[in-house]
Amino acid sequence: QKEVEQDPGPLSVPEGAIVSLNCTYSNSAFQYFMWYRQYSRKGPELLMYTYSSGNKEDGRFTAQVDKSSKYISLFIRDSQPSDSATYLCAIRGSNYKLTFGKGTLLTVNP
Amino acid sequence: NAGVTQTPKFQVLKTGQSMTLQCAQDMNHNSMYWYRQDPGMGLRLIYYSASEGTTDKGEVPNGYNVSRLNKREFSLRLESAAPSQTSVYFCASSVGGGSFNNEQFFGPGTRLTVL
């Protein structure tokens, strides 16, 4: 079983839809949970991070962590065409190395 | 601040040729990383440098070598390129150490094709 599993999609939604992106992980030692956004032909950039179970909001984005189920989610409300990108979950333990999911390609159609 | 810069942006090599990918950061970060990104495989760590003077293997180190030249620069070398090394290569840096967040900042990538 891979340490981090992420459905690669692709996911196509109409503008204004609520988007749900998910990852599961296997190592209970993981402590920090991040979402990166990667536009086409660009490097990834950090979107959100959290270290505890529960929800964290930042504008239209909500990151959710359920440590008991080893499940993390990213919700995008009122999705916009500018949200079209690949979203990668990234998880790390007590060291500084990140383990990435494979990424989910999201397209938001006007 | 330029952040993380990588050169070259694109490169085509023939099998067996060698080349060095350059990476530099101006954020005074301690840790630096090299990843490769392939379709359907996500980002995989090749090598990393926790601090100046140290380097360690990541998930896929075979066929690569690295040099942490100084705190700012971290290069990746392919001694004898193979078609399996066709990929997009990303360099990243982070504060490192016991930093709580330790966000990794990525460069724009180098697209390498090995024929």
Walk me through the structure.
The complex is a heterodimer of chains A (110) and B (115). By secondary structure, chain A is an all-beta fold. Chain A is built from no helices and 11 strands. In chain A, the strands form 2 sheets. In chain A, strands 2, 4, 5, 9, 10 and 11 form a 6-stranded mixed β-sheet that branches. A 5-stranded antiparallel β-sheet of chain A has the order 1-3-8-7-6, with no helix packed on it. In chain A, a hairpin with a 4-residue loop joins strand 7 (61-66) and strand 8 (71-76). The termini of chain A are far apart. The mean pLDDT of chain A is 91. Chain B has 115 residues and is mainly β. Chain B is 0% helix and 50% strand. In chain B, strands 2, 4, 5, 6, 9, 10 and 11 form a 7-stranded mixed β-sheet that branches. In chain B, strand 7 (64-68) and strand 8 (74-78) form a beta hairpin. The radius of gyration of chain B is 13 Å and the shape is globular. Chain B starts with a strand and ends with a strand. Chain A binds chain B through residues 6, 8, 32, 34, 41-46, 49, 51, 88, 92, 96-98, 100-103, and chain B through 4, 31, 40-45, 48, 50, 58, 90, 92, 94, 96-97, 99-109.
List the helices and strands and how they pair.
The complex is a heterodimer of chains A (about 110) and B (about 120).
Chain A: E1 4-6, E2 11-14, E3 19-25, E4 32-38, E5 45-50, E6 54-58, E7 61-66, E8 71-76, E9 85-92, E10 99-100, E11 104-109
Parallel strand pairs in A: 2-11
Antiparallel strand pairs in A: 1-3, 3-8, 4-5, 4-9, 6-7, 7-8, 9-10, 9-11
Chain B: E1 4-7, E2 10-13, E3 19-25, E4 31-38, E5 42-49, E6 56-57, E7 64-68, E8 74-78, E9 87-94, E10 105-106, E11 110-114
Parallel strand pairs in B: 2-11
Antiparallel strand pairs in B: 1-3, 3-8, 4-5, 4-9, 5-6, 7-8, 9-10, 9-11
Summarize the model shown.
The complex is a heterodimer of chains A (110) and B (115). Chain A has 110 residues and is mostly beta strands.
